[in-house]
UniProtKB/TrEMBL annotation:
Pfam families: AAA_31
Highest taxon of the lineage: Bacteria
Lineage: Bacteria, Pseudomonadati, Thermodesulfobacteriota, Desulfobulbia, Desulfobulbales
Residues of the AAA domain: 2-165
Organism: Desulfocapsa sulfexigens (strain DSM 10523 / SB164P1)
PANTHER family from the UniProt entry: P-LOOP CONTAINING NUCLEOSIDE TRIPHOSPHATE HYDROLASE (PTHR13696), PARA FAMILY PROTEIN CT_582 (PTHR13696:SF52)
InterPro entries, alphabetized: AAA_dom (IPR025669), DNA_Partitioning_ATPase (IPR050678), P-loop_NTPase (IPR027417)
The name this protein goes by in its record: ATPase involved in chromosome partitioning
Amino acid sequence: MNSIAMYSSKGGVGKTAAAVNLSYASSIRGKKTLLCDMDPQGAASFYYRVPIKGKFNKKQFLKGRLKGFIRETGYPGLDLLPAHFSFRNLDIALDIDGQDQLKNIFAVLADDYDVLIFDCPPNMTLLSEKLIAASDQVVMPVIPTTLSIRALAQLMKFFDKIGADRKKLRAFFSMVERRKNMHLDTVKSYRKKKVFFRTLIPYLADVEKMGINRTPVAVSTPGSAATMAYDRLWMEIWKRRVSD
């Protein structure tokens, strides 16, 4: 089972949109995929129109009782573990010394899924640390601006602080506006660095409208530039996992 954390300490960078679209791209490429909505705001669950089933909350989650609360999304090969508002307090409930705590919780799903994608909350906390530890890859969306590049540098330092392997960290440029010289200059300066995937996710109305359509862009606008970009990005992520 390949586990991927979609993570950024900054909000509004296209993290959840990427988690939703990459999980769909994974499933249509034949991978049995589970999207885990770890953000208490529940945006990924909203996009897929998946409400919580039964009495799922942080207590059930920490006991490893996941299978009974996993929901189908309506798309073949793609399931979702919905978020719960009580996840906002997961940091308080987590074991500080249990580095493999989340990895052990999700291990029960190893025979059921090929790919696990975590939509992480936008912060640097104990939950973030444990999601990083539980993931084979950590993928960060970066808007081509100074503050977003700075956030990537801070994440690298965070990796060093918690003893995480920097080799599993990768980034991609998100919400790229080709009409903005700053975006173009930033992409040109950083795109060749090893940490970045080659694929750029453009700033397009198709992605913005996900909140209205509540579907992946490949469903609402098949063949669009956004759809093809997310598919290319997924193939880069998967190829890197296989090659490593």
